[in-house]
Amino acid sequence: MATIRPFRGLRYNPHKFCDVSDVITAPYDRIHAAEQTLYYDQSAYNLVRIIQGKSTPADDADNNVYARAACYKRNWIAEEVLIRDPAPVLYVLEQRFTTPDGVEHVRQGLTAALELSAFDEGAVLPHERTLSGPKEDRFKLTNATQTAWGQIFMLYPGDTAAISQRLQSYLDAHMPGLLHDRIVEPEVEQNFWLVDDEALIADVVGAMGLQSPIIIADGHHRYETALRYRDEMRAQHPDAPANAAFNYALVTLVSMEDPGLVILPTHRLVHSYPRKTAAALLKDLAPYFTVEEVSTLGHLQEALGDAVPEHPRYGLYDGDYNLLTLKDLEVMDQLLPGRDPNFRYLDVTVLHELVIEKTMGLSKESIERRENITYLRDPIQGLEAVDEGKANFIFVLNPTRIEQVRACTAAGERMPQKSTDFFPKIVSGLVALPLHDTL
């Protein structure tokens, strides 16, 4: 059972920021050096200073990105740049976007405080593995600022009519605020509403309580960080009430049946790999795959789109386009006999276990360290890197399907990292959840 609550969000003051496009950001894990600099230049109040601040050579235990984040929070509240909503409310995020195939989509999410629960309790389930480094970083930020800044993107199993249609008439009566994250996903239009109708809030909270389990789409590190922070706060404050804010996570919930729920493929660019040429690799893969040469990226993508679950397909580009089709899934039964078939037969599992690890000889540890692999949403970047001699070759993949996410999660399996790229991301800076008081 998923328990959500309205909350008094911490938001950019609408009287100071009629358009918050200059202060919102992509999620922290999509902010790299180039995006960080652009966000810094965009506004002195851009949230990047809190969620992914710049470090300096002089940083130490007392003066660092986390201490500066806490300072920005205090100063911006004092300046009324950030203000609390006066009463607990829910929020709705609508995202309008066009995917690379030219199709227009609309996706609606409900932003609320979700009661935290351990994965073994079954109310909230993960679908991907996590790493310790990002969790430590997010914990330090949470601990320093006592605030949840980034929304965790979650999926609920109910029909869109169960939640979304209850909100639509209310939203239709309110003017949307059009926002853009101008750096990472500028093509996405973001509309954000505050819902303060008490009867509607009670109706939506009750309807969401019937949805289970909730699956994490993006934000596994943030959710596990929230669990750790909750446990530490409970130890420090054993008499705190059940509605203490640290018992909750900041989430945006989207129905698995939402027609705007899109997963894009994540391609694997192989670089600095001296063991085999692409030709040698293709020869070694011949016992497992049929290999056909195709003429263009368009023809390759069309052929990938014709793949069937029993015979996963991949593209390999090393200057020439090659289509790889797995001959028989039985090899995966032999390779991973102890794993659930829903995991064994994933495209990313076949690629990593059979091709990258078994045939190419890369270890799981080196893959986690990204020593020879770069993950790309746009295959064109990879093709150019190969053509310029900056990479060996690129694997072009089909996207993971939402039914695969659901099946793996139900089986208790966690997918390899970068198995899913839910598009678009949930931007940061629309609202934050203070954790130092009650809801």
Task: Characterize the main sheet.
Answer: 9 strands, mixed
Question: Over all CA atoms, what is the radius of gyration?
Answer: 23 Å
CA distance, first residue to last residue: 19 Å
Can you tell me the number of structural domains? 2
- Our count of helices gives 15
Describe it.
This protein folds into 2 domains: about 5-260 and about 425-435, no CATH class; about 265-400, Conserved hypothetical protein from pyrococcus furiosus pfu- 392566-001, domain 2. Helices cover about 35% and strands about 20% of the residues. The protein has helices spanning about 35-40, 50, 65-80, 130-145, 160-170, 200-210, 220-235, 280-285, 295-305, 330-335, 340-345, 345-360, 365-370, 380-385, 400-410; strands at about 5, 10, 80-85, 90-100, 105-115, 125, 145-150, 150-155, 180, 190-195, 215-220, 250-255, 260-265, 265-270, 290-295, 315, 320-325, 375, 395, 420-425, 435. Helix 5 runs antiparallel to helix 6 (about 200-210). The chain is globular and about 65 Å long. The protein starts with a strand and ends in a 5-residue tail after the last strand. The relative contact order is 0.18. The model has no long low-confidence stretch (mean pLDDT about 95).
